[in-house]
């Protein structure tokens, strides 16, 4: 009871500054009495709205867009045409504007599936340029250079919203959107977005489909831009092509970058600094270009994470300097992970999966990485794959996990032929992966990194998550408890709230294992998990691998550390130049004369 009260009062304490901020913003038009301030504040609110959508796309999902201005234009013109020419109400026109902008945003996203982010930037820049020409060309619909005039204000019951009313509407929309985005980025969806941004292959290995996630992000960006456009239309009462210049489109990206990408307050800070402040300092108008350019240069050199990112970094540093130094050393963690703490591994999602490879071939240009490999991996065993550098071990894991498609041959999981399946689908069937170099959400907490492992297991849908419905909260609480238990088992409990990027190498590897275990895997593929570990960490890794097998998971272990292999493997397969040399018990395989030759380069 008292704990619940404590949690509630903690939430109230966290919400208090926001409530004060919203109350102060809401009181602004009443306190200032200057219509110009209200007008500017409304425009700033619309920019924050569009910036928040772009932050989801760019900050959280890594999809650059210089074309948000074009989508705002789509929303503004759709609203203008429906309201001024067809007498629609704002409440009917705005949803249509949002839908049309989502459609346009999704179209813009199509190249994103094939291109890297900087090419997408060029595509979206092209869209921004084309949009302005289209607005002029389709004169009959858009009014050409003169644009659309006489767009009425929204009417709410008996009241037509005035300047202040539109401001309060924009503020309310921002508050709702902020709450929705806050919940989204702190959920399965948000973790999936960040995985696509930080490590697309890792994202696929936990069940995230990058193409769908990018589409979702572009749709969110389109929706907020469309809504921003609808509000801009009724705010100005007219729309012209001159409102949607290239500068206008680029402004939103700058607002996000300067404020702090992937920080919720980023677009607010960016808009205040980049739009509101210069508008208020009108005396500096002629120097504005120079001030913008210089500020951008200085910020990108000294605060590449934007103002909000820099603020967080300083706060973290202050917290660290106030903490006794040994609490941040590696000893307590490796002590915890290296002692006899029994590692409890939860049961897999189903029966352990066996693997069968039949004549698998894979080449990269002239390099034949796999040359007709036949291999059976029995369910419920630890099966090690060893061989010299470049012998094809990682390629083999990539083919099994479907991150790579083989050129020839077949791959079976259990009895199912998965030769054409995707990595995301396999992840949903219980295949997990630990990578050769840890692939983590560097800026997220350890707990969030582990929770990402539950991506394919979470049952709560997007709507229930965003609305924080009771079953969504319940599932979240259960998974968080499970993630914390895993972190505690691996000796990382004290660091659960720290950023993953701040962890030493050994703990980053353990964190990857924790994420993989969170998937409750039926088949776990581990690529050189021992690389760079201390002897103590190696010992605990060995115990962990045995515990994973004993819980009922098949483990495929690619490893150079022969002592670890000898101590944990049930079967060892040796590869050399893409061919299978031998396969058998550790003693037989590692003692085989051909294997000694492979490793030493001469006959035994
Ligand atoms: N994406 C790629 N593009 C081109 N060549 C590749 C690619 N991936 C692997 N190769 C080549 O395929 C061969 C096998 O590589 P692979 O990474 O599977 O070997 P490995 O046994 O895992 O090596 P290591 O022990 O060094 O990790 C190597 O010659 C490598 O250079």
TrEMBL record:
The keyword Transcription does not apply. One of its GO terms (molecular function) is branched-chain amino acid transmembrane transporter activity. It is a multi-pass membrane protein. This is Amino acid/amide ABC transporter membrane protein 2, HAAT family /amino acid/amide ABC transporter ATP-binding protein 1, HAAT family. Residues 355-602 form the ABC transporter domain. It comes from Thermomonospora echinospora. Residues 321-345 are annotated as: Disordered. One of its GO terms (cellular component) is plasma membrane. Pfam families: ABC_tran, BPD_transp_2. The keyword ATP-binding applies. SMART domains: AAA (SM00382). PROSITE patterns: ABC_TRANSPORTER_2. Keywords: ATP-binding, Cell membrane, Membrane, Nucleotide-binding, Transmembrane, Transmembrane helix. SUPFAM superfamilies: P-loop containing nucleoside triphosphate hydrolases. It is found in: Cell membrane. The chain crosses the membrane at residues 12-31, 37-58, 65-84, 90-110, 117-135, 166-185, 215-238, 250-277, 289-308.
